[in-house]
Design a protein that fits this description.
The complex is a heterodimer of chains A (169) and B (229). Chain A is α/β, with parallel strands linked by helices and 169 residues long. Chain A has 3 helices and 7 strands. Chain A has a single domain, classed as NADH:ubiquinone oxidoreductase Nqo5 subunit (Beta Polymerase, domain 2, 2-Layer Sandwich), CATH 3.30.460. Chain A starts with a helix and ends in a 44-residue tail after the last strand. Chain B starts with 12 loop residues before the first helix and ends in a 5-residue tail after the last helix. The chains are: A alpha/beta (169), B mainly alpha (229).
């Protein structure tokens, strides 16, 4: 992990390359997080790769509903020589969740971005094959969104089946 | 119909030799009159063909080798030595639905898996039965969420075995209840058992297929030559 000043140095480097790039830095419980503006994510990850963070370990989504901007996509990077990790985070609004895909530079992101799309409905531009990966192709909605109904089946027991006659239909 | 092996009344060990001698006499034709009557009464069991068939069927179920989730581990255990289903003649687990007549849904059924399970069930030959094992595929259990569907929604289930997961003994009990069910009811396909006649979905052949069929029929007729008579 870069320590807190190290994180600020990295953020400064990124800001020198692109002043709009880094929105915020968070250092919490020994975890360093760079919050990056969505349009600059590909350049930011490319810059971090040049610094040695060569492995993209995970891409995942978070839904902060009802907070805005609602969704975030997190990229966990690992420096294999220093065994050093950094988290890059992108926040996108709920009504326009569009993030540039990093799949052209990081092929491992292919399935993981599809999963984020499947579960949260975040759209990745320039993704070569953006379709559902876990749910059936004709499924409606994105089940990991926090306003998605928990769903499932109302369970009927012999105790309550008389309240709902012909419940099996 | 329960078959109890072992010595019946008056069937001691020494009696065996006498029975053998009597069988020899019968084969020689030496028995007649009341002795022959008694001999036949002791050895012949009359029943209907259907009951005999059910008895044979119910004691030789071929379950399908098919596991879905954690319940499958318990299902595998009933083949092992402790709860040995070979005692009842169910040990021949078949890897193909064409050879199986019992499918045990052991675990949760996801919406994506449901059409595949339904296809496997449809590929099994009648008469066929289904056991829904565990809470998940009966009422979705702890995984009652967006991804799953209960098995009753898309296929007929004969026996539900509750539990999370059910112990192998519980599944064994379910299989034996199914055995009783098969013995007590005359054999019907699942559509008759569950009143599902008329719900078949048949895709009519396309025009191209009809044309191909017609040409094939003409071709084979021409090969046979002109009909005589």
């Amino acid at each position: 992990m870069p320590d807190a000043p190290g994180l600020e140095l990295i953020a400064q480097d990124l800001r020198q390359a692109d002043a709009e790039s880094v929105v915020d830095t968070v250092y919490f419980r020994d975890r360093a997080t760079l919050v990056v503006a969505a349009p600059t994510i590909r350049a930011a990850l490319g810059h971090l790769r040049d610094k040695g963070y060569g492995a993209l370990m995970s891409v995942h989504g978070v839904d902060y509903w009802p907070e805005e901007p609602r969704f975030s996509v997190l990229y966990e990077l690992l420096d294999m020589r220093e065994v050093d990790r950094i988290t890059v985070k992108v926040r996108v609004p709920g009504d326009d969740p569009i993030v540039p895909s990093v799949t052209p530079e990081w092929p491992t992101a292919d399935f993981q971005e599809r999963e984020v799309y499947d579960m949260f409905g975040v759209l990745f531009t320039d993704h070569p094959d953006l379709r559902r990966i876990l749910m059936p192709e004709d499924y409606e909605g994105h089940p990991q969104r926090r306003d998605f109904p928990v769903g499932g089946e109302p369970v009927h027991f012999t105790a309550n089946e008389h309240d709902t006659p012909r419940y099996w239909e | 119909m329960e078959i109890i092996r072992g010595a019946g009344p008056g069937e001691g060990h020494g009696d065996f030799r006498a029975k053998q001698m009597r069988a020899r006499d019968m084969l020689r034709g030496d028995l007649d009159g009341p002795e022959l009557e008694e001999y036949v009464e002791q050895r012949v069991l009359t029943t209907t063909l259907e009951r005999a068939l059910n008895w044979a069927r119910s004691n030789s179920l071929f379950p399908m080798t098919f596991g879905l989730a954690c319940c499958a581990i318990e299902m595998m255990a009933i083949v092992g030595a402790r709860v040995d289903i070979a005692r009842f003649g169910f040990e021949a687990l078949r890897a193909s639905p064409r050879q199986a007549d019992l499918i045990i849904l052991s675990g949760r059924v996801s919406i994506k898996m449901a059409p595949i399970i339904r296809r496997l069930y449809d590929q099994m030959l009648e008469p066929k039965w289904a056991i829904s094992m565990g809470a998940c595929c009966s009422s979705m259990g702890v995984f009652n969420n967006y991804a799953l569907t209960p098995a009753d929604k898309f296929m007929p289930i004969d026996v539900h075995v509750p539990g999370c997961p059910p112990r192998p003994e519980a599944l064994m009990h379910g299989v034996l209840r199914l055995r009783d069910m098969i013995q007590d009811h005359e054999q019907e396909g699942w559509r008759d058992r569950y009143g599902a006649r008329g719900t078949e979905e048949v895709v009519p052949p396309s025009e191209r297929e009809v044309e191909m069929l017609r040409q094939a029929t003409q071709h084979s007729e021409a090969e046979k030559g002109p009909r005589i008579g």
